[in-house]
C-alpha cells in the first residue's frame, strides 16, 4: 500500500466538490480501456494514455488481463476535472465475466455504453443496455472508432434506434448545446416549454441543457456523442458534456449508508469496495451490515483506501459519493447494504448457465480444493462452489460458470494465486424448473411439542422474476411475526423441482392460510412447514423444465450465410431475418446453450476464421428436449430427504409422516380452494 506526494491532491475531496461515478461498458474490443485511459489523461491523473497492446494501462493491471488483452475484473480510478471528482469503473466486456460488470452497476451514477461506429449494435450491447435500464442509470452512448473505414454517425444512430432505444439525442462535439435541427426537435417533442421556444425560433441553450439533464436522470432520454478513443477525438468534449448533464447530489451530513459492489483478497487482507451513498466513514468506525434473511451485524472498519488501478492509497476519511476500498469487514459480501440507504438494489440477472467438476491434477485433496474455490467465490459469488457425495461414495467438487473463457481464467488464477493445478470436466448445462398453472401446497410439521402449518398458493411468475412472495393471510388468522418467518423461509434456500432436482424459479409463493400453537410452535417449525408445502404443491403441479438460451449475433461473409443459418436451425435456434451490408451478412437469433456452447469452433471452420460470434444471456426457456434430459439426469425425488413433500402430524403423543397425496386429508386448515378459479 502506498501514499505518495503526487497523490496528495487526489487524496482529498472538498466538502463542496461533486462526485460522479462513471461506469464504462462495452462488448469485447470496442475500445473501452483505451477510452478510460483517455479520460484519465484529460483529467490529469496520468501523464500519457496507456495502451492495451503495450500493457501499460492503469486499468487491466492484472497479469492475466495483460496476457489476454481483455478486461476480466472491474477496475477503478479517479481524477478531478472542472471542479468535479470523477470515479471511473472499467467493467469486463466479455459475457463470461458479465456478473462482475453487473455488480458494478450499483456503484454507478451513470453508464457510458461504448459502441463501435463501424458496425451494428451487438447482442452484448443490447444486454448491457437492458442492465443499465434495469438499474435505472442515465445512459450515454459514445460512438467510438469514428476513424475506422465504414464508421458512420448516421448508421450508428439508426442501429441504436432499431436495437436499443428510440429515445436518444445526438450531440455534436463542437457545439453540443446548440439544440438545432434534429437535436432541437428531439428535445422540443418532450417538453412543452421548449416546444414553444423551438417554434418561435430556437431553444435557449441553458434551458435546453436543464431539461435534457432532467430527462436523462428520469430515463426519458439517452445521449449519444461520437469520436475516437485511439485518436483522442471527442473525448474531452464528451467529458465536459457528461459533467454538465449528470445530476447526482450526495449528502455527507446524513447518516452513513453504503453499497458493497466488489470484494478482493490481497496477500495481506480482504478488501471490500464500497460506494458511499450518504454520510462519512473513518477508520475504526463501526457500521451496521444488512444480510438477506439474517439479523444485521456490527463490523469495524480498519483502513480506508482510494483505489487507482492496482494502487491502494490510504485516506483519513471518505464521504458520500466516493468509491473506496476498506479492510476489516468479514461479513460484508458483494451486493451487501451497509448502514441506512434509500431505494432498492436489483438482484443479479446474469447467472451462470454451466456447471463443471474441478479436478486437481497435482494431488491437492478435495477439502483444500473446496477451500480455495470458496475463497474465490468470496470475490465471484456466482461460482457457487460445492462438494457432492456421489452414489458410489466419491466426492465431486463443482463450480458454476458463464462459459469456457471463465474456466480458463479460473485455472490460471488457481495456479498463480494458490499454486494449485486443475483441469475441468466437460461443462454441463444448469437447468431450472417452474410451473405452468397455479397450484395449492400444504405443509404441516407437528412432531411432539412442535407445531406449524402453512397453506401456500404457487403461481407461475413472470419469466426471469425468480421466487417472489405475497401474503393474503390476515394477521388475525396468523400473527405478523409468523408471517414474516414464512417469508424468510421462502427465500432462505434454493427450492428444488421434482423433475430433475434443479432449482425452482419464476414462481410466486402466496401465503393463503397458516396455523400456529401458543405453547408448541418453536423456532424452525415454520421452516419445515414452508419447505414441505412448496414441495407438496410441486408434486401436484404441471411442472416445466427450463434451459438457458443464448442471444447470438454472427457477422460473416455473405456466401457462408446459408450454411450458418442451416446449422443454427439444426441446433434448435430461432433466427431473425438476415441482414446484409455489402459482402457481410449479419445473422441474429437465440437458441439453447446446450446446442450452441461450442458453435464458435463450427463457425470458424465454416468461414475460414472470417466470421465473428457475439453471444449474450437470453434467459431461461422451456427445454427443447425435456424428456431426454429428465431421463439422463435420473433424479430420484423420493430419495432426496432434504426436499421431502411429506408432512408430519401427531397422534397419541407421537409424530407420524403423511405422504404428499394424503396430506390434505389431515391438514388442520379449513381452506380448500381451486387455484385456477
TrEMBL record:
SUPFAM superfamilies reported in the protein's UniProt record: EF-G C-terminal domain-like, P-loop containing nucleoside triphosphate hydrolases, Ribosomal protein S5 domain 2-like, Translation proteins
Biological processes per GO annotation: ribosome disassembly; translation
Keywords linked to the UniProt accession: GTP-binding, Nucleotide-binding, Protein biosynthesis
SMART domains the UniProt entry points to: EFG_C (SM00838), EFG_IV (SM00889)
Residues of the Tr-type G domain: 17-253
Keyword Translocase carried by entry: no
The keyword Acetylation is assigned to this record: no
Domain of life: Bacteria
UniProt-listed Pfam families: EFG_C, EFG_IV, GTP_EFTU
One annotated GO molecular function: GTPase activity
Signal peptide: none
PANTHER family: RIBOSOME-RELEASING FACTOR 2, MITOCHONDRIAL, TRANSLATION ELONGATION FACTOR G-RELATED
Protein name (Swiss-Prot/TrEMBL): TetM/TetW/TetO/TetS family tetracycline resistance ribosomal protection protein
